[in-house]
Write a structure and sequence with these properties.
The protein has 656 residues and is of the alpha/beta class. The protein is built from 26 helices and 18 strands. A 7-stranded mixed beta sheet has the order 10-8-9-1-3-2-18, with helices on one face. A hairpin with a 2-residue loop joins strand 8 and strand 9. Helix 4 crosses helix 15, helix 9 runs parallel beside helix 18 and helix 11 runs antiparallel to helix 17. The longest helix is centred in the C-terminal third of the chain and has 21 residues. The protein is globular and about 75 Å long. The chain starts with a strand and ends in an 8-residue tail after the last strand.
Length: 656
């Protein structure tokens, strides 16, 4: 795993390219602390900070073709690189290293962009044709690895993390009010959004090609959730699930360094830990979070699992003061507003993983999206069938939708919630029918902004412009939105890649193997009860996992939000209501902001609901983002610790 950064074009003299790229790479050196390298010519400066995982001795970057025409800076892992290397060798391709990076380059030289659908991996890369002067930026199909671009004058900047842009002379961040409103309302940046003016993401499964002043964009991977042929029986489906997940774990255990596993105590990570433990007889190392606040703690399930598997287990116990203390640093790595504090404990956990000498961990992300594990999918089923159900059937389904939420758990909850569900049986936000109920909380958070305009407009335009979206079934539309928004924009990035790579740890997600996602689409709701989430997964591993893990049901990973700040650091109240800072930020509604902060700090904790917690966390993260990015305090001016390997093709630097 690595970080990449670069500058294409612009008016700056190539003589300054070395210092420029060194400064950009320094901002993201945490992603690849083992070594750094760059390629320079008269049009381009690009480089990589490397986290050595595969081919530690000869896998340095950038890697170039034998004739010196093509150059690659690569952030990621190609899990099926061995199979692709064999195929390429059979076509006469000769390799100089054992790295997956060289496989990516040789596949590009052999097949062009047609190589991308062959890739099973998590990656973002820049490939450059030095003869044509053409740069192509590519991101993986599910958005596991970040890739940002910004136009600054005549130059194009790109990097794995936006903070690299702070090293470019004259670059300044400023908030984009429309994008902030969308983030506050929908909980996450949309695929191309960053939250800042002039900065965009390359969306998952897409590429951006630069050649002189010409810019081309395209998509190489579609998110296909159409159900395929189902196995003939439940038993056959279970065998397919076991086989595909075992294969997905196997290829993600390919590494020249030790691989660990995150275990939450839930079903998904328990399955991954079980499969990994079977293949690591020397003793798998597992890592988990424990919470002082019992509402969020799953240590009993973690202990049951790790005892069953015999792993060498490491736990990090998290208190309110830990969340508050690490919040600024975690936000610096997140780079975008966050609606929960749950990413902060993941930052602390990654720190413990790296202290233990582990560079790679497997995790369970993607299982809920692929196998319909969230309550929002059950809500979609209920709302879609509402008019066909009698009152009792509606009440029964409401009772089974979100049993883990406190306001759903008591006996009278379904009747109280009946009116709430009834409000959303009509589509008020065209294209977003399945998410209207969730977005109510976002509507509240958007009131923090002085001009929220139409906070759901960007999401509506996203789905309106997606070919085939309108033809999906109701549940598949909900699933599409989860994959394209919250999964890529928050779970895989803020809570996943950014927290792990903040400490030089690579996370891998077997449930997001393309074959697993395709299989899930074929078996979902074909067997069992659709209101018994992930029925097949539980059946497939019932004989190897602890009963308390299987019986627990969905328990979303959470951490203490506003209450942590109230209990651990009351001074945050003054920070978040400082009028001069609010005026400097320029996008906040001072009256609503102060009222929210007063409610959180003065009111009884039990009166602070989900929507207030989310709005408070978004507000706190926005204040720190202003400090780190708008004020520019995230910039690190120290030199690269690992030195810089330079491939210099600048004409002004070549000998006469």
């Amino acid at each position: 795993m690595c970080g990449i950064a670069g500058v294409y074009g612009g008016d700056r003299s190539p003589e300054g390219h070395r210092e420029l790229i060194a400064g950009m790479l320094r901002q993201i050196e945490h992603r690849g602390p083992d070594e750094a390298g760059c390629y320079l010519d008269d049009r381009l400066a690009m480089g990589t900070v490397r986290l050595g995982i595969i081919d530690l001795e000869s896998g340095s970057q950038p890697v170039g073709s034998a004739d010196g025409r093509w150059w690659l800076c690569y952030n990621g892992e190609l899990y099926n690189y061995r199979e692709l290397r064999r195929e390429l060798r059979a076509r006469g391709v000769r390799f100089r290293t054992d790295s997956d990076t060289e496989v990516v380059l040789q596949a590009w030289l052999t097949w062009g962009r047609d190589c991308l659908p062959r890739f099973n991996g998590a990656f973002a890369f820049a490939v450059y044709d030095a003869v044509a002067g053409e740069l192509t930026l590519v991101r993986d199909r599910f958005g596991k690895r970040p890739l940002f671009v910004a136009r600054h004058g005549n130059a194009w900047l790109f990097a794995s993390e936006m903070k690299a842009f702070l090293a470019y002379p004259g670059f300044r961040f400023s908030f984009d009010p429309g994008q902030l409103a969308s983030i506050f309302a929908t909980w996450t940046p949309l695929p191309a959004h960053s939250g800042y003016r002039g900065v965009e993401q390359v969306p998952m499964g897409e590429y951006l090609r630069l050649r002189g002043d010409r810019v081309d964009r395209g998509r190489w991977a579609e998110l296909d959730l159409t159900p395929g042929p189902a196995p003939e029986s439940e038993a056959a489906a279970i065998e397919r699930v076991r086989a595909e997940l075992a294969a997905a774990v196997d290829v993600r255990l390919r590494s020249d360094v030790e691989v660990g596993v995150y275990v939450s105590g839930g079903l998904d990570s328990s399955i991954i830990a079980h499969l990994a433990a079977r293949r690591q007889p020397a003793g798998l190392r597992t890592f988990s979070l424990e919470f002082e606040d019992a509402r969020f703690d799953e240590s009993a399930e973690q202990e049951a699992l790790t005892a069953r598997l015999g792993t060498r287990h490491h736990a990090v116990r998290v208190r309110d003061e830990d969340i508050v203390g690490a919040f600024p640093a975690a936000v610096r790595h997140a780079e975008v507003p966050a609606f929960r504090t749950a990413f902060v404990p993941m930052y602390l956990l990654a720190e413990r993983v790296r202290e233990a000498g582990i560079k790679v961990v497997l995790s369970g992300e993607g299982a809920d999206e692929a196998f319909l594990g969230y309550g929002i999918f059950k809500d979609a089923l209920l709302l879609d069938a509402w008019d066909e159900l009698d009152e009792q059937a509606r009440l029964d389904r409401i009772a089974r939708s979100h049993p883990y939420l406190p306001h759903f758990s008591d006996e009278g909850a379904p009747k109280r919630l009946l009116g709430l569900y009834r409000r959303f049986t009509e589509e008020h936000l065209p294209g977003l029918f399945t998410h209207q109920m969730r977005f109510q909380n976002g509507r509240f958070a958007a009131r923090l902004l002085r001009d929220a305009a139409d906070p759901f407009g960007p999401a509506q335009r996203l789905v309106a412009g997606e070919p085939g979206y309108a033809g999906l079934g109701t549940v598949q539309r909900a699933q599409w939105l989860e994959f394209r928004t919250l999964l890529a924009g928050y779970l895989l990035s803020t809570q996943g890649d950014r927290m792990a790579l903040g400490h030089g740890v690579e996370n891998r997600c077997p449930f997001l193997d393309p074959a697993v996602v395709r299989l899930a689409a074929s078996v979902n709701h074909r067997f069992g009860d659709p209101f018994d989430e992930k029925y097949l997964l539980k059946r497939a591993y019932a004989d190897v996992l602890p009963e308390r893990v299987l019986a627990k049901g969905k328990f979303p990973y959470r951490a203490t939000d506003s209450a942590a700040f109230v209990r651990a650091c009351p001074d945050y109240r003054d920070t978040l209501t400082d009028r001069s800072t609010m005026d400097e930020i320029g996008v906040l509604d001072p009256g609503f902001t102060r009222a929210l902060v007063d409610r959180v700090f003065d009111g009884p904790a039990e009166r602070v609901g989900t929507k207030e917690n989310q709005a408070f966390t978004l507000l706190a993260s926005l204040f720190w983002l202003h400090h780190w990015f708008v004020r520019g305090q995230a910039r690190d001016t120290a030199p690269l610790r690992s030195g810089l390997r330079v491939i210099d093709r600048r004409t002004s630097m070549l000998p006469a």
